[in-house]
Amino acid sequence: MSATSKFPELGKFNHIAILVRDLEKAVRKFQSLGGKLVEREHLEQSGADVAVVEVGGAHLEFLSTRQPDSKVGRLLDAQGEGVHHLSFEVENLDSALAEAQQAGFRLRDTVPRPGLHGRRIAFLDPADTCGVPIELVEENDPDNKTSPENKRMGRS
Questions:
Q1: Statement: 13-144 belongs to CATH 3.10.180.10
Q2: What does the domain layout of the chain look like in residue ranges?
Q3: To bridge 20 with a disulfide, which of 26, 101, 118, 143 should be the other Cys (CB 3.0-4.6 Å)?
């Protein structure tokens, strides 16, 4: 990547993803720190179990699995528990990926894939982002009116 390459501005910070072996224990631990569970889902395609806890206005997305041969299982074996990636919103993921490539960024995902609640996601290569995996996420509901938290609060 060229030092003069410029990637289009990232949108709003979305979440920090954290790999954990015991999802229930992680949720309880962060609830004891004042966190609030806002969503939980099993992603059939990847075998990932996901829980999102809001702490201090930030979303922590805990990733775990009951399938040791899944992607999350292999990551836990290789890396152990800890921060997995940072996520930022983009308006149009296809355009953002094309612009990132034009700016010289390598892509871990050249084609978007499904994330929580039908969101589309893709990753930049961490070799180009100081070793930090960066997820780009396109919300299917830009105003987030259909999120479990907003439905519970009567905002939908």
A1: yes
A2: 13-144
A3: 26
